[in-house]
Structure formats: structure tokens, C-alpha cells
Specification:
Elements: E1 13-22, H1 28-36, E2 43-48, E3 54-57, H2 68-83, E4 94-100, H3 106-109, H4 113-124, E5 133-136, H5 142-152, E6 160-168, H6 172-180, E7 197-206, E8 217-226, H7 240-253, E9 262-265, H8 271-284, E10 293-296, H9 298-301, H10 308-319, E11 329-335, E12 340-348
Parallel strand pairs: 4-5, 4-6, 9-10, 9-11
Antiparallel strand pairs: 1-7, 1-8, 2-3, 6-7, 8-12, 11-12
Length: 349
């Protein structure tokens, strides 16, 4: 029997600004346009398969800095891009919630995330609110970040929350792990993903009263679930965890499946997650319900781990306002290898 959907009172959060740094561009405008045009910047790398074949990667053009220093550059670029569009905010009244890889990830142990954050603040000469936190729980912790952002924005001393994601799969231990697990796209494996790196920042603020200003995208609901199935096939997926997250997100938004016009998926090319998402939507869709338009991000920027959730939010905050956008109401969903699942409903208001 499936667990009952999570129901939390949730006040809509307005996406006031956003920034992106990825292989398609150093700003939201350039990266989002490239994604909309279905472009990519995949290239052969110095990483090799056991047969000596170069791996395709989605890499930013920086060859001198690696590890934490490299991630710090992308964090700075995303924050700078996001904050450049808002002049009325004071940094020390903004709290940062940084989504980082989970503690069981290979790359987590090798990086001092706190030092990266502090170095980026020093480089940008910014000081954020003391309630800033690093959420080292993987990309499905987006729902956790949204719940915390909702609580923080009830406080009078906080004007906004920056939900940030920064990650890179371009290091030898991580590449080696996924090669051993046969999960990377290679000439011998079509059921794999292309590793990448990215950073994204989204500024969330309280919902404002309607005005004549241009409509903005709001996060109107979110939810999470746990899936027993595992990508290695050791436990088959029944898509119950993702279905639970989707139902919870729709419930907290007080919306139904019929209100949705599209879904934005974190699918990276692996059949396991694509099938799971298809089964989950089959569970929540009414009999005879129309299939939603599917948007994907990883086919443009590669698999970017914990950065993907904020990157999806940033891209959609621009795309949904476009006259040829996918619609005024949609849902995004995320899945982690550890079984965590998350979903969020977005609406143009």
C-alpha cells in the first residue's frame, strides 16, 4: 500500500531572479536560450573508458583549476548572475540554501563545501544571513530546501532565500565509479549518461500582490517520497516514491493533474529513471488523461548532480514567461540514487 501524500500548508514562493553557469553559458540568458534551442556542448575529454576511448563530457572551458577551486568559480558566476538582476536586496538579509552531493557520494568526501562557500563570499565581497545552510543531501533535497525557504521567509529579518546548487562529476574517482557501474554513455553502452558540471542560483521571495508588472513564476507546491527501487536492479522500482512526491506536490498546491500543462524531468539518458517517471505519471494521471509535454535538461548540460534542481528552476523561470513557453503550470521532478524523490509545482502568475 502506498504511503499517504505529504500535505503541508505552503505559501507560494516567487522566483525573483535566477542565475546559471554551465557548459552552455555563464548566464541564465545564454544557457536558457541554448537549452530552448536544444543545443549542447558535449565534447571528448581526457577521461577514458577501459578500452581507451575518450568519454563525452559537458565541461566548462577551464583547465587550470579542479576540485573545490573549480566549483567555487561556478558558484561565484551563478550568484553574480542571479544578484545582478536585483538591486533592491541587501545580501545580509538573504539566506543561502546550498544543495550539495549526498554524504555517500564519492566526490563529497574530497571537497570542503564550507570552504568553497566562504571563498565565494569573500571573492564577491558578500555576507549572507546567518541562517544560510549547506544541504548535503543530493538533488532530491530540493523539496527540503523549499520547505526551509518557506519557513525562513516567515521571518521579518529575511527578505529572500537563495536556493543554490553546485556540482561536478568531472573527477577521476567519480568517473571511475560510474564506469565500474556501467552507467556512463560509451560506444559500448547506450544506456548511460554524459557527466557534466554546473551551478545555478534562484532567489525566492514572498508572493507579492498582483500588479501590472510582468508575470513571474511561482513555486506553489512541493513534495517528496522514498523509492525502494535501485538503479542497479538489486530492487525493482514500482515508482511508488515518485508518485508519492508528485501527489504531495499537487496536494500542497491545491491543484490536480488536469491543471498541469507540462513536466520537467531530471532524466539523464538512463532507462531506469525514464521508465520510473513514466510509471509514476501513469499512477497519478486519471484514466484517459492526456500525456504532459516532457521537458528535459540533462540532454543539454549533461548529468550535473545536485546542481540540476536549481538549474531546472532557473531555466523554467525564464522559459515559462516566453510567449512560446510550455504553459503556465507545470511540475518538475527529481530522483536520487539513494531512493529520495522530490517534486515541485510551478505556476506563472
Amino acid at each position: 500500500m502506498e504511503a499517504p501524500p505529504q500535505t503541508l500548508p505552503f505559501t507560494p514562493l516567487r522566483i525573483a531572479s535566477a542565475g546559471i553557469c554551465c557548459s552552455l553559458g555563464y548566464t541564465l540568458d545564454t544557457a536558457s536560450v541554448a537549452l530552448q534551442a536544444r543545443l549542447d556542448h558535449f565534447q571528448s575529454s581526457h577521461f577514458k573508458t577501459p578500452r581507451g576511448e575518450p568519454l563525452l563530457v559537458a565541461q566548462l572551458p577551464e583547465t587550470r583549476r579542479w576540485g573545490g577551486k573549480r566549483l567555487g568559480l561556478w558558484l561565484q558566476a551563478a550568484l553574480r548572475d542571479c544578484l545582478s538582476n536585483v538591486s533592491e536586496v541587501t545580501p545580509d538579509r538573504l539566506a543561502v540554501l546550498w544543495l550539495a552531493p549526498g554524504r555517500l557520494e564519492v566526490r563529497h568526501a574530497a571537497i570542503d563545501w564550507g570552504a568553497i562557500y566562504q571563498d565565494a563570499c569573500d571573492a564577491l565581497e558578500l555576507r549572507f544571513h546567518a541562517e544560510s545552510r549547506i544541504l548535503a543531501q543530493g538533488r532530491a533535497s530540493l523539496s527540503v530546501a523549499l520547505e526551509r525557504a518557506h519557513l525562513l521567509l516567515q521571518r521579518s529579518d529575511i527578505d529572500g532565500v537563495l536556493v543554490v546548487g553546485v556540482d561536478s562529476l568531472l573527477d577521476a574517482p567519480t568517473i571511475g565509479r560510474y564506469l565500474n557501474e556501467d552507467r556512463l554513455l560509451t560506444p559500448k553502452n547506450a544506456d548511460g549518461f554524459i557527466p557534466g558540471e554546473a551551478a545555478a542560483a534562484v532567489l525566492l521571495q514572498r508572493e507579492t500582490a498582483p500588479s501590472d508588472a510582468r508575470p513571474s513564476v511561482h513555486i506553489v507546491g512541493h513534495g517528496r517520497g522514498i523509492e525502494a527501487g535501485r538503479v542497479d536492479g538489486s530492487v525493482p522500482s514500482r515508482a511508488q516514491g515518485l508518485a508519492q512526491a508528485l501527489r504531495a506536490a499537487l496536494s500542497s498546491a491545491a491543484l490536480g493533474y488536469a491543471d498541469l500543462e507540462f513536466r520537467c524531468a531530471d532524466q539523464n539518458g538512463e532507462a531506469f529513471y525514464a521508465k520510473e517517471a513514466s510509471h509514476a505519471f501513469g499512477r497519478i494521471a486519471p484514466v484517459g488523461g492526456d500525456a504532459l509535454e516532457l521537458l528535459t535538461i540533462a540532454d543539454g548540460v549533461g548529468e550535473v548532480g545536485a546542481a540540476l534542481g536549481p538549474l531546472m528552476l532557473a531555466h523554467l523561470s525564464r522559459l515559462m514567461r516566453h510567449p512560446l513557453g510550455p504553459g503556465a503550470c507545470g511540475i518538475l521532478h527529481l530522483a536520487d540514487d539513494d531512493g529520495a524523490r522530490a517534486a515541485a509545482v510551478l505556476e506563472l502568475r
